[in-house]
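Re: duplicated header lines in exported structure tokens

Our pipeline writes sequence and tokens for each protein into one text file. With two proteins the header for the second block appears twice in some exports. Here is an export where it did not happen, for reference. First protein block:
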Amino acid sequence: MTIREPVGCTVNVPEGVMAGATGRYTKTFGELEALYADRQAFAAMAPSMRDSVVYEVTEFRPSSATGDLIFGVTRMAPGKVGGEFFMTRGHLHAKADRPEIYYGQSGRGVMLMESPDGETRTVVIEPQTVCYVPPFWIHRSVNVGDDDLVMMFCYPADAGQDYEIIARSGGMRLRIVDDGSRGWTTIGNTNYRPRTQQECERLLEPTR
């Protein structure tokens, strides 16, 4: 058995990136059209915003072995489409019984979470906030502040991501929008399609 070498990765909070990462990916405004309810507002913003990076991830993946960990940093720009705040695509782990930890570094965000049967929870993430996303919860990060939202994350290396579970239900059950008083609130997603009992039971099966 080969024992991997320890590493140290430095987080540049103002830039929202992690030095020493093994990978980086970005999502531009134009790639996220399907997330937002106000299609007219999106179309009006698209000519000037299409190639702008809404969020980027720098991460360290030592392996995909069970028992190992992946960690990194997410930086998300502030902004809104209509009244709906910028957000990530969101996901459930492909091995749904794997949890995740987020640690706020700067900015102000909300972690929107949804169970397979449609229960919802929100956790506000500010600097030095640790957010625990339990197994079996779909989760999406939302920037509800005026500045970049920067968070560290860590999850089991064998967890994987299922992004399509949200699309199959027409989005998450709630949307996070401006409350008109420099804050945020949740509203129902009129496109949401609840999962069947069989789908919920399948998603809640433990994995190895």
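Second protein block, exported in the same file:
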Amino acid sequence: MQPAFSSGKPYLSVEPLKGTTTVGMAFKDFIVLAADRRAISGSFIAHKRAEKIHKIDEHVAATIAGYVGDAQWLVERLRAEALLYRSNVGEPISVQAIATLASTILFRSRPMIVVQMLIGGVDHEGGALYSLDWLGTVTRERFTATGSGTPYAISLIESQYREDMNPEEAIKLAIQAVKAATLRDPGSGEGVDLAVVTVKDGVRVIRGEEIL
């Protein structure tokens, strides 16, 4: 069963043909996430400053695509669960546990919640990146992309990704990948937001106005 997008309910995109470009890359001790800023409703550009990257905890961030309300609800649920875990256990929740929780919520809620996510962070095992679709399927990735701009973004990342990249090199590649998609994909655009998660600084979100 495919989600119905004809109702006019605002969304950031789930199906590849519907718009949006988000990318993620994982490295030994950091991860980088990036996304365009366009939100669409059908063929209409509903918003030009959509925030598709969100901090989940001090060491975990996520990109979102799908119905806006569903995505915002899921982000807040994951934040609450991460805070509760930290309070009860006295240490941060693992990136894998957050991804598993999101997968369980999506699986149990299908097809009522339509959200696709990339979840990335750094914990005791190092950098970790997970991709989740709206059915709850979860996979661990070294690098990946979602949305209609995927063919343009992933081809660039795949040709230049190295496991020994430093944060500056990874940030530059993530920006280039999203920008390549926005130049060729009508469903993506309006600039780039990104997040870098490191052991030292935690989650650092950089909005489009700060990116030259």
